[in-house]
Design goal:
The chain has 1273 residues and is mainly β. It folds into eleven domains: 1-37 and 1028-1115, no CATH class; 44-222, no CATH class; 240-344, Sandwich (Immunoglobulin-like), CATH 2.60.40; 348-446, Immunoglobulins (Immunoglobulin-like, Sandwich), CATH 2.60.40; 450-536, Sandwich (Immunoglobulin-like); 541-626, Immunoglobulin-like, CATH 2.60.40; 642-728, Sandwich (Immunoglobulin-like); 733-831, Sandwich (Immunoglobulin-like); and more. 3% of the residues lie in helices and 42% in strands. It contains four helices and 96 strands. Strands 3, 16, 17, 18 and 19 form a five-stranded antiparallel sheet that branches. It has a four-stranded antiparallel sheet with strand order 2-4-9-8, with no helix packed on it. β30 and β31 form a beta hairpin. The radius of gyration is 65 Å and the shape is flat. The two termini are 37 Å apart. This is Ig-like domain (Group 2).
Length: 1273
């Protein structure tokens, strides 16, 4: 009982001590026991607001407030942190006014913590929002949206925001934590600005060192330039495609501004147009959405005298109305000098002419072009006036009227004879249907009279009974020089037998038989002309009698003529006679007849060869069916003469064994190209008895065994012709000569043939061959020759060399037998593959300046059949720079005298082809410029770096740079972190994740430039400091309490500059000055099991970098002996399992748990302080353990006394209750060795309590357990 009362007293004392020390710990947070802290005031922001750069905004609300849209930049003018800038910018002071009750200045050495957020409503409408808690805050982290501090918009110490696309229809807010240059503390609490249309401000810090109290800031007043805070989409801007002026640029008229809008930029939305008119240079600056002095009408004010003499302009603006917003176009300005303007002027009459020069008794009309002056839809309504000049020089009006068809006046018909020689004027006054009248235009021309009349005949014959119509025509010669042919009804005959109609057609009395002469006259406008008509009888005449073609042997003679008679309906019945001139110079008739086809005559039969060279005569007498006749007409001609006699063939050749006869033909050629076969007509003769010739020219030989030469002769009239006849021995021949093989470079060719003995089977093949080649543009060259050793097979050619490319290969074979008789040479040929292209490798040579190495260039020739040959040593090499040296085999090096970079080429010529590759001598390497880290290094994040790769003017350089990441601790120890090759030029791969051990360290990145030619340059370095921990705190699993029966696991947490809280338990130093408490490091402290008394005033100190914090705790002593009381009563001490911080519970003591004591069980139970528990049951007292859901399981482990070697304790039984009132029991092994443990206990329901007991091994009555351990897995 004494022990129980003592435990109650210790609990009360512990509670009092913990209460006192906990309060003390809060007041001494971040304190040191060496130096007393000076209490100060945290800084606060008295007034703050964001500014938007809306200079180029084109989207407005109806109240003309610019809208916030994605891409707009927001910034806080934190540059006002500088006192000098703060004083110089009084108008901007409300946007950033940092205060400190200690009069500490704003820090200009640190980047201030300002974060941007997208705000969205929860359940409260925007107009009802009164607190930042009414909104959903989403931090913006996108690197494309968060812009680094900049002097732009005076945001030197805080980040700027480029409004992102995902903020559309939402709002923007930001948080800011003030920071002063000096003082303790120098950081204030965070302000939340949730309505950027207002200035916000924090209340002054009212208590020294009080930082933890919320001071989120409140609205002060609206910013000077009102804005709507909801972010709107970037709607497409309307586009004015064209703008020009239209109208009559004259006094008092108005001009219209005509325009065209890009349809896709408007869609189906409403469009408003605004216009500003004025003198040039005055309207462009007026084209603003905020300028309310505008007009919607496109028409200008009426033009004044000053406008006519000056340049005016108009500015137009399109406003699209979409989703309640005004989307404004770029203002568009033009002036009256713009070439696209369409001005119009009063109408005018242009190009006025008369259809012809006016003539007496004829009609005339006017032609013109109506000029509408540029006015659209203008209709011609002009008037016209015809006038004649009178004798006094004045104009008399003849006709007036309104134009009916634009461009032409009505006709002025039948000009009177009295107008002849006078001036006729046409005047047109321009006007249109809009009653616009312009200046009149006129044209004047003299009316033309008649000078004389001429007829188409002065005298003409008419044949009695002729059927052809005779028409007389009159040509009128006018005073202006015009000549016009008329049909005028003014003809008159002086004989009754002759009449003439109005068209000039003459009619003669058909009963007239006597010849006579009749006078016919024509009179017109005072002039007269006379025609004499001679009436004659009909006489037949043969005209144009001629031979149709030369008179040819073996063809009929034909002739043609024209029979002239005045009645063409009478049939031609003329007669003809044919004659030839004999040797006695007499005409002998050989044919006669009557014409069948009018105008055509022919001999009855063809002309025999006997007529060659004779004179022929044809006489024709004209007759018709009515008996009319006329004089005889005749022609003469010569029959063509024999000029040549040709024998074919011109020579006959027989083989010695040939028995077949051969034919010779004799062909006569005449003067005009006729040919006649005279083979069977002349005389054939032979001059050799062994050569026989028949009367029809057939030739054969008598002797078949000898060589014979003779002649065959043909005689006709005075012509004698000969044919040589030759008999030759039989010769062999070559058939089917074929070249085989592929004609490729470095190859050879073969050939085959067939040897033909020409029916002499005993011949032997002793033929010879010769190979030739012919290069393009050259003559044939000998290659090789020889005598064939195997009939039908030609020995191979020599090897085809590269210089043979494109050559023609010729093979000649002469057939020869064993007697030396040779036959006709046989020839065949083949083309060698030709050179197609050259290629050089590599495709580029690069040298560093001063480099002495030799680099090889290989030249390869590609041929048409696919051969690829190395011709490096067979062509000619050259370089485009004297300091680039090249050897004949393609080795390239740079002259030692060269001191300058070179960009040149190496050229190789082979045959007709040339190929080149560039040669570059470079003196510089690439550089890394503007290497920088993106953002501030943050814990649990990696950081990236970017740079600019500068090839320094070198072409085709690939970025092959390398990088290394380092971190440097507070002792300036620099440790390499990672390294690698750059994958994407300009972007360094991210660093490793920055863990909590590197808080405050310096992160360093090095980039070494390199390229594909392995030329590293100078390494560039950039660095930045990791955010630091500003506050640390010790966390106990139970409020400032420690265990004695199990280790106590403490945790240390640190708050970063960004406000993030991190676990730094393993990154600092844990210490205590208490003699009975041991620090195992990493926040683990133990109290030995043999310490029976509870321990008070245990100082626990955690030191991290330059920060240190101390908390005072106490330890409860849970002794195993205290748990072993009477069988029915147990202590209330509860052992709590902390799932995350206390992975195991150990029960230690100087009592032994013996199986000899009946049912001596260890009971883990408990209840409220000071209440004794009865026997364990499911309705008894419960541990705090009952609140633990054991999902992973508990493992029970025993420790036995090492001094008792026979101890083979096992867990015999273990039971536990769950909140479903079910008792669960595990039965252990019946036997075991030295040490054993239970299986894992698994249950998904909370556990109320655990009972376990032990038994000895088999054959043993006693076993001892010194300690037990519950392990939470």
């Amino acid at each position: 009982m004494f022990l129980k009362n003592l435990m109650y007293k210790k609990w009360i004392l512990l509670l009092l001590l913990l209460t006192t020390m906990s309060a003390a710990a809060k007041l001494t947070n971040e304190s040191s026991n060496k130096t007393k802290q000076i209490k100060g005031y945290a800084p606060y922001i008295q007034s703050i607001a964001a500014q938007a750069n809306l200079d180029n905004q084109y989207i407005f609300f109806p109240d003309l407030t610019p809208a916030l849209t994605p891409g707009i930049i927001l910034a806080v003018p934190s540059s006002l942190c500088s006192p000098e800038l703060f004083k110089a910018n009084e108008d901007l002071q409300p946007y950033f006014n940092l205060r400190d009750e200690d009069n500490d200045k704003c820090s200009v050495l640190e980047t201030h913590n300002l974060d941007w957020y997208i705000l969205d409503n929860k359940d409260t409408e925007w107009n009802a929002v009164v607190s930042p808690d009414d909104l959903i805050w989403t931090l913006i982290t996108d690197v494309d949206s968060i812009l680094p501090p900049s002097t732009n918009m005076l945001s030197q110490y805080t980040s700027r925001l480029k409004i992102p696309e995902n903020a559309v229809n939402k709002r923007i807010g930001f948080t800011y934590s003030p920071i002063s240059a000096t003082g303790n503390p120098n950081k204030g609490t965070q302000a939340k600005i949730w309505d950027i249309s207002y200035f916000f401000g924090q209340k002054p810090t009212s208590q020294a060192l009080l930082e933890s109290a919320p001071n989120l800031g409140e609205k002060i007043t609206q910013i000077p330039l009102p804005i709507h805070t909801q972010i709107k989409p970037n709607f497409a801007r309307p586009i004015i495609k064209t703008l020009y002026m239209y109208g009559e640029f004259s006094l008092s008229s108005t001009l219209e501004a005509q325009y065209q809008i890009e349809p896709d930029s408007i869609g189906s939305n409403e469009l408003e147009m605004r216009f500003w008119w004025g003198p040039k240079g005055t309207t462009k600056n007026l084209g603003r959405i905020t300028n309310t002095d505008f007009q919607n009408s496109p028409y200008s004010p009426p033009l004044t005298d000053s406008d006519i003499g000056s340049v005016i302009e108009v500015t137009a603006m399109a406003i699209k109305k979409q989703d309640g917003l005004l989307i404004v176009s770029e203002p568009y300005t033009i002036d009256s000098q713009d070439p696209n303007n369409q001005f119009y002027y009063p109408p005018s009459i242009d190009n006025l002419t008369l259809s012809m020069q006016p003539r007496v008794n004829e009609s005339v009309y006017g032609k013109y072009t109506f000029n509408d002056g540029g006015k659209k839809n203008s209709i011609d309504n002009s008037t016209y006036i015809w006038q004649i000049e009178n004798d006094s020089g004045k104009w008399d009006t003849l006709i007036t009227g309104t134009i009916l068809e634009s461009g032409v006046t009505p006709e002025f018909k039948n000009l009177k004879q009295e107008y002849a020689g006078k001036s006729l004027k046409l005047e047109i006054i321009p006007s249109d249907t809009d009653d616009r009248i312009g200046s009149s235009n006129s044209v004047t021309s003299e009316v033309i009279g008649v000078l004389r009349i001429e007829t188409n005949y002065n005298e003409v014959d008419y044949i009695i009974n002729q059927t052809n119509a005779l028409q007389l025509k009159a040509t009128i010669y006018y005073s202006n020089g015009d000549i016009i042919t008329h049909n005028i009804n003014k003809w008159q005959s002086d004989d009754k037998d002759v009449s003439i109609d109005s068209y000039g057609f003459v009619t003669v009395n058909p009963e007239l038989t006597e010849e006579k002469t009749v006078n016919i006259t024509i009179s017109y406008l005072g002039q007269q002309a006379l025609v004499k008509l001679n009436i004659r009888k009909n006489t037949l005449i043969i005209n144009e009698l001629h031979f149709n073609e030369p008179i040819l042997i073996n063809k009929k003679i034909t002739a043609s003529y024209l029979l002239e008679q005045f009645n063409s309906e009478n049939l031609d019945e003329s007669t003809y006679e044919w004659f030839y001139l004999s040797l006695e110079n007499k005409w002998i008739k050989f044919d006669e007849g009557k014409v069948n086809d009018p105008g055509m005559i022919s001999t009855v039969s063809t002309i025999d060869h006997l007529f060659a060279g004779k004179r022929i005569r044809l006489e024709v007498t004209p007759f018709n069916q009515v008996g009319d006749t006329g004089p005889i007409s005749s022609i003469e001609g010569n029959v063509e003469s024999l000029i040549e006699l040709i024998l074919t063939p011109s020579e006959l050749t027989f083989n010695a064994n040939e028995s077949q006869s051969k034919q010779i033909n004799a062909i006569a050629s005449y003067e005009y190209g006729s040919q006649l076969d005279l083979t069977s007509i002349g005389i054939w003769q032979s001059d050799n008895n062994s050569i026989l010739v028949s009367s029809n020219g057939s030739v054969s030989i008598v002797n078949q065994n000898e060589a014979i030469q003779g002649k065959v002769m043909f005689i006709y009239n005075e012509f004698t012709r000969e044919v040589n006849v030759k008999v030759t021995p039989v010769e062999p021949s070559i058939q089917n000569l074929i070249i085989k093989g592929s004609p490729i470079i470095n190859g050879t060719l073969e050939a085959t043939y067939e040897f033909d003995s020409n029916l002499f089977p005993n011949f032997e093949d002793n033929s010879t061959y010769t190979w030739f080649y012919t290069l393009p543009g050259s003559s044939k060259m000998f290659w090789s020759d020889g005598t064939i050793s195997q009939s039908g097979v030609i020995p191979p050619s020599p090897k085809i060399e590269p210089f043979h490319a494109g050559a023609s290969i010729t093979l000649e074979v002469i057939p020869t037998d064993q007697f030396g008789v040779t036959g006709e040479k046989s020839i065949t040929s083949m083309e060698i593959e030709h050179l197609v292209s050259l290629s050089l490798a590599p495709n580029e040579l690069r040298f560093n300046l001063g480099e002495t190495s030799v680099k090889k260039v290989t030249a390869s020739a590609l041929y048409s059949l696919g051969s690829v040959i190395d011709v490096s040593a067979k062509g000619s090499w050259s370089a485009g720079n004297p300091n680039v040296l090249i050897e004949t085999n393609g080795n390239v090096f740079i002259s030692s005298l060269n001191s300058m970079p070179i960009t040149s080429e190496v050229n190789f010529k082979y045959g007709v082809l040339t190929s080149s590759i560039p040669v570059i001598v470079q003196s510089i390497t690439a550089d890394i410029r503007n290497l920088r880290l993106i953002g501030t290094p943050m814990i649990n994040q990696s950081i990236e770096a970017v740079y600019d790769f500068d090839p320094n003017g070198m072409l085709n350089i690939i970025d092959k740079s390398t990088y290394r990441w380092f971190y440097k601790d507070f002792s300036n120890n620099q440790v390499e972190w990672s390294r690698g090759d750059i994958i994407q030029s300009g972007l360094v791969p991210n660093s490793p994740i920055i863990d909590a051990s590197k808080v405050g360290y310096t992160i360093i990145v090095e980039v070494t430039p390199n390229d594909q030619f392995e030329r590293p340059g100078a390494t560039q370095v950039a660095q930045s400091v990791v955010e630091t921990v500003t506050n640390i705190e010790i966390i106990f699993p139970r409020t400032e309490k420690m265990n004695t029966v199990a280790p106590t696991y403490l945790m240390a947490k640190g708050t970063l500059e960004s406000g993030t809280i991190i676990d730094i338990t393993s990154n600092g130093t844990w210490t205590t000055t208490h003699p009975n408490v041991t620090s195992l490091g990493n926040g683990v402290f133990t109290v030995p099991y043999y310490v029976y008394e509870e321990q008070d005033n245990i100082p626990i100190t955690f030191t991290y970098q330059k920060l240190s914090v101390t908390k005072v705790a106490r330890a409860d002593n849970y002794n195993l002996g205290d748990l072993l009381g009477a069988a029915s009563f147990y202590r209330e001490h509860a052992v709590v399992i902390y799932a995350n911080s206390t992975p195991e519970i150990r029960l230690w003591g100087d009592y032994w748990l013996s199986s000899a004591r009946n049912n001596q069980n260890i009971i883990l139970s408990g209840g409220s302080t000071g209440v004794e528990c009865g026997a364990f049951s499911q309705n008894g007292c419960y541990l705090e353990l009952s609140r633990l859901q054991v999902n992973s399981g508990l493992k029970v482990d025993m420790t036995y006394d090492a001094a008792r070697p026979n101890d083979t304790t096992i867990i015999r039984s273990l039971s536990w209750y769950t909140n479903d009132n079910v008792l669960h029991t595990f039965v252990g092994n019946a036997s075991g060795t030295s040490k054993s443990q239970t299986d894992i206990i698994r249950n998904t329901a909370p556990i109320y309590g655990i009972i376990f007991f032990s038994t000895g091994a088999i054959g043993s009555s006693t076993s001892y357990i010194k300690g037990l351990r519950l392990i939470y897995q």
